[in-house]
Amino acid sequence: MAKTRTQKEESVEKLKTRFEDSNGVVITDYHGLSVSQMQELKRELKPIQGDFTVAKNTLVSRASKEAGKEIPSENLKGPTAILFSMADPIEAIKKLFEFIKKYELPIVKSAVFEGRQITKEEVINLSKIPGRDELYTKVVGSLNSPIYGIVSVLNGNLRNLVHVLSQVQKQKGGASN
Prior knowledge:
The chain has helices at residues 5-21, 35-45, 57-67, 89-103, 120-127, 132-176; strands at 24-29, 50-54, 80-85, 107-113, 116-119. By secondary structure, it is of the alpha+beta class.
């Protein structure tokens, strides 16, 4: 059943809001994904505030233009699904590429990241960057590393002092006999 003009306008408004609120947008070709696979991807993205939505190309084009994140028309050919990331876009991209590795679908066309259009290759490179939590863990680990080194050095000095005192005690104990 065809949508009425009002329904289409509501769809454009919802898409426009998502474009405006998102930190990252990935345009994909979802052709070949089953309904269960689509639902699985949506479930995996939900905890990281990602949303995978299927929409008509004309509506996506209009909504992205109105939101100031225009998608080139060459990326809006064929069946289109959009990954909107409301939180950390790198995490959403990483999750999408884990899914792609598993099913070899959907096919990434392009993305809008930090307000600029990026290519499929750039999206692939972004998927290889460590996520925010992983980076925090590395920073904390590297900050703690010098502290552990200092503790080890201080413990070594204390061990050496105890060893020297032990040797002195043995010498004194041996000299008095």
